[in-house]
Amino acid sequence: MTRRFDLVVFDWDGTLFDSTALIVRCIQDACRDLGIAVPSDADAAYVIGLGLHDALRHAAPALPPERYPELGRRYRHHYFARQHALSLFDGVLEMLAALKARNQLLAVATGKGRQGLNEALAHAQLRGVFDATRTADETASKPHPRMLLELMDELDVPPERTLMVGDTTHDLQLAANAGTASVAVAYGAHGHASFAGFAPLAVVRSPRELHDWLLAHG
Fold it and tell me: Which terminus of the chain has fewer Cβ atoms in its 10 Å neighbourhood, N or C?
């Protein structure tokens, strides 16, 4: 079967890595540490996928900008203390192996920082699996298209041959801004209903469904 896409770009948290609940708790704990209003689970989940400072600005709108670094330090403290209990979603390794076996290029576009992504890739034993990666601290944060444009440029793949896969509206807007197709996953941070206005090629409800769709349609 002729494949439609040469490059598949994945978001990390909530798409490949089962970390949504932990990120929500760490954002809330960081706000408690600073004695500011604690966002609801839904409000904390909404910011997942953004760069850290953008995420914290949305999660704690009353916090003065000069205190963002302090909030960011508390978030990292809580996240790094617990991250080693996290894992890939079931089926992700098999999915990535199947895509590699048919010579598709694979990349990651994430709101994580470089240190955080490198540690997560090492923990998940995925170093060397991806052909390129971009993090929010080394380029523009989602949904600005630069992250995806840089990956396409590095791997020499045009937008029409690139697919973005993510669990948030930030990922789908990133794809739209960069001129690529997208697939939404509804098992991460944002729910099925939130994707309606972004015209993804599919909305999948499990990693297994994502695996099957990519192999059949990607």
Answer: N
Apex CA 128: angle with CA 165 and CA 108, to 5°?
20
Per the listing, tokens 């098992």 go with 187
pLDDT tens readout for residues 54-73: 787 788 888 888 888 898 89
User: What is d(CA 23, CA 86) in angstroms, rounded to the nearest whole number?
Assistant: 11
Cα 94 to Cα 27, 182, 183, 210: the distances in Å are: 31, 21, 18, 11
Amino acid identity, residue 77?
Answer: H
CA distances from 194 to 147, 168, 217 (A): 22, 8, 23
**Does the pLDDT of residue 191 top 80, yes or no?**
no
Question: What is the enclosing helix (H) or strand (E) of 135?
Answer: strand 132-135
Burial 175-212 (b: 16+ CB within 10 A, else e): bbbbebbbbbbbbbbbeeebbeeeebbbbbeebebbbe
State the maximum Cα–Cα separation within the chain, in Å, rounded to a whole number: 57
Catalytic (active-site) positions: 11, 13
Q: Is the model's pTM score more than 0.85?
A: no
C-alpha separations of 196 from 21, 83, 107, 186, 200 in Å:
23, 32, 25, 12, 8
CA angle 14, 17, 19 (to 5 degrees): 65
Determine the 3-state secondary structure of 117 from DSSP.
helix
- What's the DSSP call for residue 130? -
In order of 70, 87, 211, the CA distances from 204 in angstroms are: 37, 20, 9
